TrEMBL record:
Pfam families per record: PfkB
Ranges in a coiled coil: none
Source organism per UniProt: Chelatococcus caeni
Carbohydrate kinase PfkB domain ranges (all copies): 20-293
Protein name stated in the entry: Phosphofructokinase
InterPro entries per UniProt: Carboh/pur_kinase_PfkB_CS, PfkB_dom, Ribokinase-like, Tagatose/fructose_Pkinase
Amino acid sequence: MAPILTVTLSPTIDMASEAEVVRPTHKVRTAQERFDPGGGGINVARVIAMLGGTVEAAYLAGGITGALLDQLVAPTGIEGRPFPIAGATRVSYTVHERSTGLEYRFVASGPEVSTRELEPCLALLRKTDSRWIVASGSLPRGLPLETFARMADIAAQRGARFVLDSSGEALAATLDRSRVFLVKPSRGELEQFVGHPLDEMGVREAALALVRRGAAEMVAVTLGAGGAVLASKAGITRVPALHVPVRSAVGAGDSFLGAMTFALAADRSPEEALRLAIAAGAAAVLTPGTTLCRREDVLRLYAEAEACETAG
């Protein structure tokens, strides 16, 4: 399959643990602590590697926590390409409260990044042989809103397919001025983009509108328990969710995008890619904390979904 390059401008060290009860002012004793390399593009790369793809992960990292991030990336099976910045890499924290089953997620804003610090990463995009470039995650403070649009333009100049998963003003700026191959907003992110709430018909219409005006070749909208829809020139493909026990919602969107990109890069049809993505998203919620999806769960759920579809 074609090699894939992921880009993470705002990576994180994801720490996850469990506590019996989370209470204010009291010391909360935790257990089952784990540390994972995180941030959208790194998570996407982890999923692609887990499924058997060839992937390289470019990311910005700085400070003592940046060195720890490098150590966490090393054993994942992905080739890491860190680019140094002055600020310290952020640390995010997830706590599962055993007594209630609730999950508390604390997400740091991260360091400010300058355009000078970004330039080596853009230089990699200009010379990479990867035919697939995935930019996933938030835009750091200090970088201009058109940063992802610049990446999309560089990818287009090299004949590479650019995949984007971001939100807010950075997403809007990219779709307003550049063309991407695939964009993956959640329903909430799409509602923020259009400026009003959307029912499922509205989701379909908004996604198709992006395709028709040339902002994206494909738009995959995740609907949580409602599954996902994929808009393209061929129309709308709708895949329902796979209902599984939920342990943690962390990483479900990144697992979805990683599996979908993996399948598309392997020349699978968009419909097959969407079904694999749904299976990966469901597999991710089976695992605790920041574990992401497991290969055996993804393949099992994909096979079960195919069997149900055939029987139906």
